[in-house]
Amino acid sequence: ILTETHCLSYAQEVSGEGIGGSNALKLRPDKWHNSNYKLYCGGKLRRDFRPYNSIEFYVKSAVQDGGDRQFWIGTWNATSNKVSISSFIEGGKVDSSWRKVSIPLSALKTSNWDLNFVETLYWDLDIQGREYYVDNILLISQASQAQSQSNAVDNVVRESFVVSESQNSVLISNASVCG
User: Fold this and answer.
1) Rg of the chain over CA atoms, in angstroms?
2) Which of 179, 122, 148 is nearest to 2 (CA)?
3) Which among 37, 11, 5 is positioned nearest to 133, based on CA atoms?
């Protein structure tokens, strides 16, 4: 495992739990604390999300009824809107299967913050203590309408949590958090 544990709060990198048996981020919130993944950590810089259109990640619950969670991002002096994961997940619910979540960044933007200098990704607490797993966190930038349909995805941020590489995607995190 390549995680710098100080980059995670109420979460941990776990081996063998990710998509295809890779590492995953295990969210372990409690009644009082949210899970978070610090991007601005371990010598890494804050991230500018403005050039991108959406953030995608895969999520599953350790139990069949995963309930619903909220997701948001933050920086030192601002937080985004909080959005319900179930509103943006394939199939409309979190359960024990890997499901893709695709959140338009426009849903996270506020009138006070345009999503520059992002430091942290947050998943809210769960009063029932259910654990979630997250894998393959990506920023996606849709190609302009003038570009061909065959080149629909552009500039995805790619780092350590992705197994396969795409020229049109950037991975924020796969399973090697801050590593």
Assistant:
1) 15
2) 179
3) 11
